[in-house]
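Residues determine shape. Take a concrete instance:
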Amino acid sequence: MKKNSYPWLVLSVTSLGVLLSAMNLSTLNVALPEVSNHFHAGAVASNWILLSYMLFNTVLILVFGKLADIYGRRKLYLFGLTEFSIVSLLIGFSPNIWVLILLRIFQAVGGALVITNTTPLITDAFDKRRLGAALSINVLVASVAQLAGPVVGGGLGFALGWRWVFWFNVPLGIIGVIWGFFVLRPVPGRAKEEKVDWLGNITVFLGLGGLIFALSEGGIVGWGNLSVILGLAAFVIFTACFVWVERHARFPMIDFSLFRIRPYTMANLATFINSLARSSIVLLIALFFQVIDHENAFVAGLKVLPVTIGMIIASPIVGALASKYSSRLLSTSGLIGTCIGMCLLVWNIGPHASVFWISFGQLLIGMGTGIFQTPNTQSIMLTVPIERRGVANGLRSMLQSMGQVISTALSLMIVTSALPTRLKDVIYAGTSAHLASDDVVLISNGYRLAFIVMMLLTVLAIAASYLRSSGRSRQSVKE
């Protein structure tokens, strides 16, 4: 294998992993009503079809980031892709909703292993001069997956049934495992003397789990319900425990010394807030068109394509610009574009929503995201020592995934919280929903409020991105 070709072969391997993990989320966003209707699931169970995967995926990403630094990336990546494919097959045979949710948790294990190792594998394989282009291709592949995901998920769910929303992962996974086995070189871990911070991982899981549980339940059973109060209490208590544990751990899961690097700190903060603001947009719009306009899953999937079309347009452009302009300029510009798109959604969502302006708003959000992600990721990865890249990328991925899971729970909570009890399950009913005109107005107002919150969060992300160092990121490793 030629030395010059190896980095691109690595990129081809990681692209399959990114394609699989990204499509897994975007297909279900559109096909959720199909799954919910099959199992006659209520609002809470429907929420957890999505949230169970996101919650465990988020926490495990940081665990596996440390394990990759200790044991090496190749074996963990291939194991994760194999496990993910097997569980995807088993999900299609779920006898009830709770078995499906349990299997989604196991699927999250494989997904976390794949996500954790893709960016470090790319960063290790490419030199700095070509890294920006490689990362932009990585984002482009994720964008293509998100572009195809809603259409594939909607089409498979509508034509063949909900099982194929999961079964389509299997052939992709098999191809990815075989190709990765032959391409990836065995590289020993660079931090073998370190240990996994299990206590830190347990406390962050319990804290985040409490918050997600409270958000998912609060809009349905009420904020005064004992279970919601206990969830919020768990979040506060275990978050405090996590901070204490990390400050006293010999090998903490989060290396707080890295936060002395201002570009690293602000880039991670921008990652989290941007993910919190934009991650639920496709889900909300897909559910909106299925419930309000009675569109089937396939048509709803087509109507959320502008987000990923925008990312596909922007990603190769920003890859070329990454070597000429600072991370702060590019990332902040992307977030400003996202904010303008959010404004269009707030202005146009309603009973007689303008498909054109909602599509244009989604396009701007997608382009803004594509412009933001590559320079922001490069800023994070190039400001840490090479032996800390697994942990650094694990934290970046965890913050992004944490933003996704909180965004999903938060946005669905906002939409349902102001609705009467009889309408709380309706947003998951898809084309089977039958609404009076007053009900349509109530549901539309819930969606508008959710988009307003997402827009305000994007403003905070702009501030975080702008406040990073104005200079170029300092390279912490030799060329």
